[in-house]
Amino acid sequence: MKINFLKLHNFRNYEKIKLDFSNHLNIIYGKNGVGKTNLVEAIYALSITKSFRTNNDRLLIKNGCESTKIEGEVENYTQNNYEVIISKAGKKVKIDNKTISKISDYISNINIVLLEPEEQNIFSDSPSNRRKLLNIEISKLKKDYIIYLNNYNKVLKQRNFYLRESYINANKSRDYLDILTNKLVSLGLKIYEMRQDFINSINEYIAYYYQKIFGLGELKVKYVSDYDKSPEEIIDRYNKNYNREVIVGKSLYGIHHDDLIFYLDNKNIAEWGSNGQQKNAIFSFKLAEIEVIKKEKNTSPILILDDLFSAIDNEKIKNIVNILDNNIQTFITSTDLNKISKKIVNNARIFNIKNEEIKEV
Ligand SMILES: Nc1ncnc2c1ncn2[C@@H]1O[C@H](COP(=O)(O)OP(=O)(O)OP(=O)(O)O)[C@@H](O)[C@H]1O
Ligand SMILES: [Mg+2]
């Protein structure tokens, strides 16, 4: 999969630009704050329809403007034109000039794998960030995933509401709660299976990448879920804890509590790993994902390495580029071209951002 060109209109600091890319290596360099990340953020948003830096879509609109448009031509067996238009009123996506009403029909089309320094935060932050990682990555692979997830969240809300109602009014029917519980469990188990499958696939490759690029040790990811049981056992658990759930007014079990634990040589990296080991672990996860996408979708994703020179040394970045096959379109950003190995520079299309202008050098 390749992006042939990117066109931006009022996106972040860019008023109007069009860039043609290499099918293989692309380097974007320039001083701090010139708009390097903005550019790869646009490529990312063309795929996911969202930024990786903020949940607030409006921040993507150039200051003082009403809307932004990201447009790109992507080649994946066929050549298609993709558009994401964000305005204060909302978001619109198009493929080949046709509006796509269901976002799930749009976002599984362009596959992007992003490595950036902030990602290491998934080890210190709450489990919700690790679930977010799962949600984003799996929705790129499976169209139905977001639909199940949205439905699960809807039922979860209804069930929590009903639990709170039951606290106020003890005569509330248990039958309706049972219906909601059954719905929750059946949707949750679908999500559980997709998440489990995804992590199983990641585990087929992650140890390889860790050892090949980053260092010694056996890296593994464990998926932890309340739903790793039979439907009967899960429902039984809800029934046994009915009183507690009514008192706290929320569903105490479910895939909304899922978590991921990274183990290096059987030790939990979040608790025990060094800063460097944590970074290497999440980057290995992302590289393993390239293989998972290749296997599932029969195409290579587009790879973005944003500001990785501030996170890992040059030698490792060279290893990453060397180990991946030449077929992967890659975007690398850096403040300094000299930080990037000659071999990469000599084979890349190079874009320099200076004084609000992007020039190919
Ligand atoms: N909505 C917006 N409208 C106009 N300018 C914006 C908007 N959002 C961000 N910017 C500008 O974009 C710049 C930051 O761009 P970006 O994060 O891409 O920099 P960078 O080149 O990646 O820098 P670094 O090397 O520090 O990572 C800032 O100067 C900021 O003012
Ligand atoms: Mg940046």
| DSSP helical segment count | 11
**Main sheet makeup:** 6 strands, antiparallel
The name of the CATH topology of the largest domain is Glutathione S-transferase Yfyf (Class Pi), Chain A, domain 2
N/C terminus separation = 25 Å
- Structural class by helix and strand composition: alpha/beta
Report the portion of residues in β strands: 15-25%
The total tally of domains equals: 2
Order of helical and strand elements:
EEEHEEEEHEHHHEHHEEHHEHEHEE
Quickly give the CATH architecture of the largest domain: Up-down Bundle
Query: How helix-rich are the residues, as a percent range?
Result: 40-55%
Description:
By secondary structure, the chain is an alpha/beta fold. It has 2 domains: 174 residues, P-loop containing nucleotide triphosphate hydrolases (Rossmann fold, 3-Layer(aba) Sandwich), CATH 3.40.50.300; 175 residues, RecF/RecN/SMC, N-terminal domain (Glutathione S-transferase Yfyf (Class Pi), Chain A, domain 2, Up-down Bundle). It is 44% helix and 24% strand. The protein has 11 helices and 15 strands. The strands form 3 sheets. It has a 6-stranded antiparallel beta sheet, covered by helices on one side. A 6-stranded mixed beta sheet has the order 8-12-13-3-14-15, sandwiched between helices. Strands 9-10-11 form a 3-stranded antiparallel beta sheet. A hairpin with a 2-residue loop joins β6 and β7. α4 packs across α5. The protein starts with a strand and ends with a strand. The model has no long low-confidence stretch (mean pLDDT 94). The structure holds adenosine-5'-triphosphate and magnesium ion (MG).
